[in-house]
Amino acid sequence: MAKQKNKELKAAQVKIEKITKYTLNKAGAWAFIFGIVLAIVAGFWPLTPLMISTLIVLGLIVGFLNIEIHQTNNFLFTTLVLVLISSLGGSLLGQVAVIGYTLSSIFSAIVTFVIPAAIIVALKSVYQHAKEEA
To answer: What is the DSSP annotation of 53-79?
Structure first.
C-alpha cells in the first residue's frame, strides 16, 4: 500500500514538473516574441528609460526561461553576430534617407533586448562549467 502511494506521488511529481517546465517555456517564448515586437515598435520613437527598462527585463526573462544548456553555444554565437551587425550596420543604416534613423533605432532596441539575455545565458554557462569541474 505504501509503495503504491509512493509510486503515485512520484508520478504526480513528474507530471507537475513537466507542466511547470512547459508553462515556463511558454512564458519565455511569449517574453521573446513580445520583446522583439516591442523593440521594433520602440524603434519608431526615441527610446525612453521606461522602454529601455522594459526591454532589459524582458531580455532577462528570456535568458532565464528560454535558453537551456544545450542551446547556449548557438544562442551566444547568434547574439554575438546580431550585436556586431547591429552595431556596425546600425550606423550605416542611419545614413539611409527617410527611414535610416528608424532602422538604426530598431537595431538599438533589439540589442537592448538581446544583450541582457546573452549575459544571463553566459553566466549560466560559466556556472554549469564550474559545477562540472568541481
So the answer is: HHHHHHHHHHHHHT--GGGHHHHHHHH
